[in-house]
Write a structure and sequence with these properties.
Helix content: 25-40%
Structural class: alpha+beta
Largest sheet: 8 strands, mixed
Number of helices: 9
Radius of gyration: 23 Å
Bound molecules: arginine, zinc ion
Strand order of the largest sheet: 6-5-9-3-2-12-15-14
Shape: globular
Order of helices and strands: HEEEEEEEEEEEEEEEEEEHHEHEHHHEHH
Length: 472
């Protein structure tokens, strides 16, 4: 799914007549990336996916994943060949029912040549049969499939899909999802959205999940294991589905004391960000030894380690804040990661203030004061951190300081209008940091270039803190 800009037909015809050389009539291969400077080969050109239907089977005993992905796509050019991003073994590809030739290139590219080229605007049903042992498949030395004693889980950023389904792996091509996974009876499968059905047959239980709003590929998740699934609804009627590994041990209480508050926290966030953008919510905690959490759409992934010091509602605030900032409105390019992390961190500061544990202003000043000017922290630019520092603390903490600085500059009224206006403006789409700066200038009527240069684009400690006090 991609948001289109309307251009009058006459203008299109004129442009075609003037600009396009005769050779463009020949179908050509789609590019192997969307042109993201941090990750040139992520996503693909030439088509657009609107829906993923994943019908899978997973055996925890030997970490074997197999099944069929059916992608509904539309060609965006006359297309002789196109790529999918995928790392497991493919046995068959069909395009509109007919066998297609396929080959792998690089570690995560699958090149598909349909029997007949696709015309621009033509719909394509792409069926991919595959199998693999995802924990064993290393791309650039790592796998985003985390095996657990009773199953496994796909959750990582920005790469997660390659290990469990073929995709156009970039946040600018969002789609809806049906994820149906058969697992041995007594084992559960967790994914995004709502649970449409759960049926057992011949020793296997099939879980069918549906995610109805446009969803980025890295926000699609799958977890298999022995889970306790809890179901409830919020005061306003949104289904809340949470899942806890039955093997959380001593972290079980703290995990539940945090994630069970997801409905309450989402409703609290609505006060700042506007209506919750999705049809369901919740969270899940598999027994992985990972250290991070991830805002997988409607149902964030939490590592047990996040609850080792007791309840952590603040972490739930962070991941649920991403449902607006990151999931409903996604990055246009991965360098725009501040749009996600700066705001999710600022939401934690607002929560702290609400809990009487320190105001956003106090936390912003502390974050500034507690790091000396020669701390490497200040060398990372939150507005363009580079692929290696995409999740550096500076993107989060200096990113949130930038928001406090903005709040001081434009005042609470415009600041909170911005926080609510942005998710509505780009709902279900993607946007850049530059778009946000433009929007902030529009809402406040102020020139903000200097402020954002200081906080997002300078590789040194700003001379004055986020509340205007200067450094000692
Ligand atoms: N967006 C995630 C969060 O802040 C961060 C994920 C970091 N990924 C990683 N592999 N460490 O909640
Ligand atoms: Zn985050």
């Amino acid at each position: 799914m991609r948001h289109r800009i309307f251009v009058p037909a006459a203008a299109v015809t004129a442009a075609l007549l003037l600009a396009i050389p005769a050779s463009a009539a020949e179908p050509s291969p789609g590019t192997p990336g969307v042109g993201d400077p941090y990750y040139p080969d992520y996503g693909n050109g030439g088509y657009d996916v609107s829906h993923y239907d994943l019908r899978l089977k997973y055996q925890p005993r030997n970490d074997r994943l197999q099944g069929t992905a059916t992608l509904l796509a539309t060609a965006t050019q006359d297309l002789s060949r196109f790529n999918l991003d995928f790392a497991l073994d493919v046995s068959e590809v069909r395009v509109n029912g007919k066998r297609a030739r396929f080959a792998t290139s690089g570690a995560h590219e699958l090149e598909v040549t349909p029997a007949k080229p696709l015309a621009k605007g033509q719909r394509a049903t792409v069926v991919v049969r595959y199998a693999g042992t995802p924990s064993q498949v290393k791309v650039n030395g790592f796998t985003s499939w985390h095996r657990t004693p009773d199953g496994g889980v796909a959750a990582n950023e920005p790469e997660a899909a390659w290990w469990w389904f073929p995709s156009n792996d970039h946040p600018t091509d969002k789609a809806t999802y049906d994820v149906s996974v058969a697992v041995p009876d007594g084992t559960q499968a967790i994914s995004n959205g709502t649970l449409q059905s759960e049926r057992s047959q011949a020793g296997w239980t099939r879980y069918a999940w549906r995610s109805r709003a446009p969803q980025a590929t890295y926000l699609a998740t799958l977890a298999v294991g022995k889970f306790d699934i809890t179901k409830d609804t919020t005061e306003s009627g949104t289904p809340v589905i949470n899942a806890y590994s039955k093997e959380l041990g001593e972290n079980d209480g703290a995990a539940r004391a945090s994630v069970e508050r997801s409905g309450e926290i989402a409703e609290w966030l609505e006060g700042y960000f506007g209506t919750y953008p999705f049809e369901a919510l919740g969270g899940y905690v598999p027994n992985t030894d990972t250290s991070y959490a991830l805002e997988t759409q409607t149902r964030p992934f939490y590592s047990p380690a996040g609850f080792s010091r007791g309840s952590n509602a603040s972490l739930v605030v962070h991941e649920l804040a991403h449902q607006w900032y990151g999931d409903s409105v996604s990055v246009n390019r991965w360098k725009d990661i501040w749009i996600n992390e700066g705001f999710a961190t600022y939401a934690q500061w607002l929560w702290s203030e609400d809990q009487g544990e320190g105001t956003a202003r106090e936390l912003a000043e502390y974050a500034y004061d507690s790091r000396p000017a020669d701390d490497a922290f200040w060398t990372v630019k939150p507005g363009d951190p580079g692929p290696d520092n995409q999740f550096h603390r500076a993107v989060y903490d200096r990113g949130a300081m930038a928001l406090q600085a903005l709040r001081e500059e434009i005042g609470d009224k415009d600041f909170f209008a911005l926080l609510k206006g942005w998710p509505k403006r780009h709902e279900g789409g993607d946007a850049s940091v530059r778009d946000f700066i433009g929007y902030a200038e529009q809402v406040s009527g102020k020139k903000l270039g200097k402020l954002f240069d200081t906080w997002l684009y300078t590789a040194s400690k700003p001379a004055a803190g986020p509340t205007g006090k200067s450094a000692e």
